[in-house]
UniProtKB/TrEMBL annotation:
It comes from the Archaea. This is Uncharacterized protein.
Length: 90
């Protein structure tokens, strides 16, 4: 049973580039399906490293989203002002 996976344009280009590099270095011509099978097998065989990689990318992506949400309201505050609001110390 075949499943269709929709890749982003950049991902497709990266896969094509990797496939071309494999062909140049080893003279092995892979189909896109074979390349994806090898990549998935590699990820499964190296789960710990793969999980570390995913977590690093995930954290970076969330950090970038959080940074985009930060807005300058144009109000100058001091650490004393912030402490008084947070700790309810007028």
């Amino acid at each position: 049973m075949a499943t269709t996976i929709k890749d982003k344009d950049k991902t497709k280009l990266d896969l094509e580039s990797l496939r071309a590099e494999i062909l140049l270095k080893s003279n092995i011509k892979l189909t896109m399906e074979e390349l994806q099978d090898y990549l998935i097998s590699f990820a499964i065989d190296n789960k710990e490293s793969f999980f570390d990689y995913v977590m690093k990318k995930f954290k970076r992506k969330n950090y970038e989203k959080m940074k985009e949400a930060i807005k300058d309201w144009g109000i100058d505050t001091s650490n004393i002002d912030v402490d008084s609001v947070i700790y309810d110390n007028p």
